Amino acid sequence: MPRIVTVDAFTSKPYAGNPAAVCVLPEPRDEAWMKNVAREMNLSETAFLHPTDSGFSLRWLTPAVEVALCGHATLASAHVLWQEGHVPQGETARFHTKSGLLTAVQKDGRIEMDFPATPNEPAELPAGMIEALGCKALYVGRNKFDYLVETDSEATVRALNPDHSVLRKLPARGIIVTARGTEYDFVSRFFAPGSGIDEDPVTGSAHCALGPYWAAKLGKTSFRAFQASPRGGEVGVRVEGDRVILSGQAVTVMDATLLV
Predict the structure, then answer these.
(1) Which of 45, 150, 199, 234 is catalytic?
(2) What is the residue-averaged pLDDT of the chain?
(3) Dihedral Cα 7, 11, 17, 18, nearest 10 deg
(4) CA distances from 213 to 176, 218, 226 (A)
(5) Is residue 260 pLDDT above 90, yes or no?
(6) What is the tens place of the pLDDT at every residue in 3-41?
(7) CA-to-CA distance for 21 and 76, rounded, in angstroms?
(8) Which among 98, 105, 223, 239 is least surrounded, fewest beta carbons within 10 Å?
């Protein structure tokens, strides 16, 4: 029977950060089964892995859809691979995904992941989006996945209580809202009701857009970022050309066996 492990990602303590379910399989399983498991787990992402000749195949499913890029479930997957000995401690974890080859390494007590940058371009404001978010927009951009909105303050980001029924209709995976931080370089929140997740607690892939955006604004390439959801989580971000290095910690909170 396959095992499934729940890991809190982008946090050093349990019951914070972003929980992901990780299922390491000996061989591929059919898509209908993976969708059923993802719905059963009912987390923002469930990661399914199986070994290949040069690493692991990795797919990410929400309870509603499969996604092309996910940071926290990749962090959780790397954590499980090292913890359970699928990859020896100190060796690079290699993932073959819909977004190409992603790698993860252990460094200074954290996990560093090499992801593609997904910079945004200025975009027209979709009808109803700002009203649904309930904030000012200093900037609106769009990349291939999400809208990005810069607002006026960290306090505004933390206080957001959007109308998800309106955001659900937008033609995008989700909406990133960000502002300059006080303790951190920048803060953000991520809303993705159209993907089945009203608010994602900590979104690694969103920082692939946030990193290039704040690098251009602040004139530097290395950041301490915080995603200010109710669970919250810290993300290290380093922009290196067309790649973004994301870093964080992870904690295993549950180990279970799937009976069917």
Answers:
(1) 45
(2) 96
(3) -40
(4) 12, 9, 15
(5) no
(6) 999 999 999 999 999 999 999 999 999 999 999 999 999
(7) 8
(8) 98
Contact between residue 227 and residue 71 where contact means Cβ atoms under 8 Å apart: no
Identify the residue with better confidence: 194 or 5.
Answer: 5
pTM (two decimals): 0.93
Structure tokens at 230: 């109710």
Q: Please, which pLDDT band fits residue 1 given cuts at 50, 70 and 90?
A: confident
Detail the DSSP E strand segments found in the chain: 3-9, 18-24, 45-52, 55-61, 66-67, 93-97, 100-107, 110-116, 121-122, 139-142, 146-150, 174-180, 186-192, 197-200, 222-227, 233-240, 243-248, 250-257
CA angle 7, 13, 103 (to 5 degrees): 50
Residue 45 annotated as catalytic: yes
Q: Do domains 3-115+248-257 and 121-241 have the same CATH topology?
A: yes
Q: What single string gives the DSSP state of each residue in 124-167? A: PPPTTHHHHHTS--SEEEE-SSEEEEE-S-HHHHHH----HHHH
The CATH architecture one would assign to domain 121-241 is Roll (3.10)
Q: How many CB atoms lie within 10 A of CB 251?
A: 18
What residues does each domain of the chain span?
A: 3-115+248-257, 121-241
Query: What is the fold of 3-115+248-257?
Result: Diaminopimelate Epimerase; Chain A, domain 1 (3.10.310)
